[in-house]
Amino acid sequence: QVLSHNLCTVLNVPHDPVALEEHFRDDDEGPVSNQGYMPYLNKFILEKVQGNFDKVEFNRMCWTLCAKKNLSKSPLLISDEDAFKVWVIFNFLSEDKYPLIIVPEEIEYLLKKITEAMGAGWHQEQFDHYKIALNTSREGLSAWELIDLIGSGQFSKGMDRQTVSMAINEVFNELILDVLKQGYMLKKGHKRKNWMERWFVLKPNIISYYVSEDLKDKKGDIILDGNCCVEALPDKDGKKCLFLIKCQDKTFEISASDKKKKQEWIQAIQSTVNLLRAGSPPPHKEARQKRKELRQKLLAEQEELERQMKELQAANENKQKELETVRKQLEAAAARAAEEEKKRLQTQVELQDRFSLELEREKMVRQKMEEQVAQKSSELEQYLQRVRELEEMYKQLQEALEDEKQARQDEETVRKLQARLLEEETAKRAELEKWHLQQQQTIQMTEAEKQELENQRMMKEQALQVAMEQLKQLELERKEALEQYEEVKKKLETAANNTKSWKDKVAHHEGLIRLIEPGSKNPHLITNWGPAAFTEAELEERQRSWKGKKATSE
Description:
alpha+beta, PH_domain, phosphoprotein
C-alpha cells in the first residue's frame, strides 16, 4: 500500500485503495513477489500515467527502493547524490532489454563526456585495455558496476571530488534534464526596462531564467518554437554583447558577459529553433539513437557473418564426407586389386607345382631307363643318346615354359595397352568423324558461297562490259559532237568576220548610223560544248538514243 501510494503521488495518478484491496483480496500466500505485483502496477497505475510528472522525483523514488540493497559498501570517490545521477544516466544509456546493462560503446561515450566536463584529456589506450578485459567476461556493466567504476576514480585520476561531482552534474543536466546550455547573463525588463542578472537554462523548447544557479527562485520562461528567431544587436545604453530573442508575443533583450559567450548563446538558441522546425529530438537523444542503430546494424552484420560461416562449415563437412567416401572407394578398389593379384600368384604357384610333378615324373622315367641300361648293356649307347635327347628336350621345355610365362605377362600388358589404345582410338575416331562432318558442312557452305560469289562476279563482269561498250559509244558520240562543234565554230568565226567587215563599211559610209539587227525569237540552248551548238531536234534525238541504251543495259 505504501509503495502504491507513493508511486501514485509521484506520477500524479489518483490512488484507489479499494482497487488495491480488491486486487489482492484472494492472495493469502504471504508477501507479494515482483511477478505478482506487476499486473496491478500495469493496470491501475502505469496505464493512467499522462506524462505530466517530475521524472527526477520518480527516479529518486526508484533509487530509494533499490540503492540500499545493491549499492556497494566500499568507499567511493563520489557522493550518494552523484551515484544517484550516474544511476539515472545508466537508465538512459542502457539497452532496451532485461536485465539492463550498458554496453562498452555507451560506457566510452559517458566517460568521455565526464572527462571533457572535468577539462581533462581522454586516455583511449587505457579504456581499450579495460574494454578488452570486459569483453572477455561479459557483454556490459550493470548500474551498480558502472557506479563502482566511476566512483573508483580509475578514469579520473588527479581530479578532486568536487571536480568529478561538477562534471557528473553537467552530464546529468545535459542527458537527463535536456539542458543544452546554462549560465549567467543580463536581461532587460519589460516594465521597468532595467537590467538584471539572471541564471539562464536552455532546454529543447524553453529558456528558463532564475535568480541564481541553485534554481530555487524561478523568474520566468521564454517559450521557443519554430517561429522564434535570434538576432545580434549593436551595443547601446552602455551595454555590450547584446542579442535579441523574438517570439510570437514577446521580445527579449539579453546581454552576455563577452563576445564569445554571446556567439555561443546565439548559436545554441538558433540550433534549438532549427531542431524545433525540423521536428528533431535533442542532439544527445538523436546521437544515442544513431549509436543504437549502428550497434544493431553491426550486430545484424555479425549474425549474417556467423550464418555464412556456419554454412561454409556445413559445406566443408559435406566435402569432408565426400572425400571420406572417395577414400573408402579407393581402399575398396585397392583391396580388389590385391585380391586379383593374390589369385594370380596362386595360379602361378599351381602351375609351378604342376611342372614340378611333371619333372618328378620325368625323373622316375629316367631312373627306370637307367635300370634298363644297367640290365641291357647292349642298348647302352642308344639309351644314353636318348637320355641326352630327353635332357635337351627338358631344357627346351623349361625355356619354353619360361618363355610362355613371360609371353603371358607380356600378353596381359599388351592386352591392357591395346584396350586403352582402343578406347583412345574410338574416342579419337568419334572426334574425327565429328570434325569430318563439320568440315563437310563447312565445305558445302563454302562451295555454295563460292558459287554465289562467282555468279555475282559474272553478273558484275557482264554489267562492266555493257558499261564499257556504252562508254565507248559515248566517247564516239563525244568525238562526233566535238567535230561538229569545230565545224560550227569555224562557220561562226567566218560569219563574224564577214559581219564585222560589213559593219565597218557601213560605219565608214554612214557615220554614226548604227546597224540594228533583229534578235532571234527562239531561246538560246546551252550545252556542254557552247551556246546553240545543237538544234532542238538534234537534242531530242540524242536524248531518245541515250534512254534506249540505258534501258538496254538495265
